[in-house]
Amino acid sequence: MRIVSVPCLSDNFAYLVTCPTTGATAVVDPGEPGPIEAALAAAGLTPTAIWATHHHPDHVGGVAGLAARFPGVAVIGHASDAARIAGLTRGVVAGDRVELGSLTATIIENPGHTSGAISYLIDADGEAAVFTGDTLFGAGCGRMFEGTPPQMHASLARLAALPPATRVYFGHEYTAANLRFAAAVEPGNPAIAARAAAIDAARPTTPSTIADERATNPFLRVAEPAVRAAAVAFDATVDPADGAAVFGAIRRWKDGFRG
Question: What predicted TM-score, i.e. pTM, was given to this entire model?
Fold first, then answer.
């Protein structure tokens, strides 16, 4: 498969996903139409589908413009977002499969950031990629606007269980800031320092991998003793044996972090 990242707005990523055998192309999370149209024209592509990971305007703000520019394009999002994603033509739920030429994306439900947040997982000939929107970022995760810590913890655990080499295409360029927080949570983790040094020389930071996230993302590392200890240091009422509670404490800390 061919995947092209398209910067949108101030720090968003949209993506073009193209089937190598048919040329069928999906646009993931078009925050605005202009950069997407330019990227499509530069590549000589016409989109057949728009895949939305959730309903927030910075991820679907370009849907109407693209649908007008490319009549008949399919607009896909979670079934619960039918009233919140304009022009939705297909609502999907966990386990549904979305065809793109010879490629197939499987839907993973990720409630937490929003109630209808989903990821699109493609595994083609052993090459896997997952589009996570604002659920899983490079070294971080999204805020919980419509979900609870147990929901978000479970959503991230589903993603963390994917094969380590799976490439993670996330929704925002937040990785440097997220790594500063990760270093505050686990100052003794050499993988965090190494990843921070590496991205200083490389932008954009998308994609990462599930292996990267398991090694450096505090929200996927709530079972680690150092992360549990950090959560308790932040909030002494936290039960360190309760993964969702540890996650919730780390997320609250991140919400107010100014490092």
Answer: 0.97
